Amino acid sequence: MKIKFYFLILLVILNFKSLYAIEPNNEILKNKILKNIRCLICQGQSVYDSQSDFAISMKLVIDQKINEGLSENEIYNYLKGQYGQWISYDPEFNKKTFILWGLPILLFVTGGVIVFRKLIVIK
Amino acid sequence: MKNKFLLSIAIFFLIFCFIVLFKSLNNSNVYVPESTLNKPLINFNSQDLFSTIKISSDQIFADSEFYILNIWASWCLPCRNEHPYLMEFNKNSSIKLIGLNYKDNPDNAKKFINKFGNPYSVNIVDSNGTISIKLGAYGVPETFLINKERKILKKIIGPLNEKLVKEINLIIK
Fold first, then answer.
1. Does B20 reach chain A within 8 Å, measured CB to CB?
2. Which of A67, A92, A118, B137 has its CA at a distance of 20 to 30 angstroms from the CA of residue B116?
3. What is this model's ipTM?
């Protein structure tokens, strides 16, 4: 009886190993990329969330690119080359996007200055 | 004085937002990125819709001045509307029409061609949609005008219409 019990514990412990197999590294990378790619025909959704024909095909292509050995950035650049900046949820800093990136910082600094000056007046 | 100034800025800002949003109402939110134009076409392998013989892009893009690559499917309603324009293009000997049958049932695709006519010199199959994604396509219908150097001269998202056909003819001339 005791042997059976120890055997059972051993069996359970050995099975923990297979837990790692649920999501292999490629799958983690694939999901990360899919969440950062916009579904272009169902705007407001990422490719990861969407079940449209476009998204299903895109998932297959990204899978192929990962298997070809392309890095995460190479895949983003490939897709931006095909579909433009709009496909990415993380737009690059350039002359078309500087307001997008700069405005929040400007507003934050302006707000900080206003609060700071008010605090000085109160003191 | 200060309040008036702030009020006028607020009103100006609201009017500005209104104009921007109102103007964008009529604009399509699908755009063709400049980066895809004048770029060489990718190489791909597929199979012929009718003969099921394997065929490569090198074999397809070999013997014409201009190519029109049209992504279509039998289940796509706008594809039916643009079909007469493709039939018209077929009469121009300097253009070779290539059909890319997108995620379709081969039997339905063949029925579609038999019913509406076959404008395509070659009809290839994209059963899982990956060739279309690699071409930078959004879905069906979509049309690419390609020159003999295999560069994409024009990309049309959505069905062809008279205005677009004129634009294509202008480029070809």
1. no
2. B137
3. 0.79
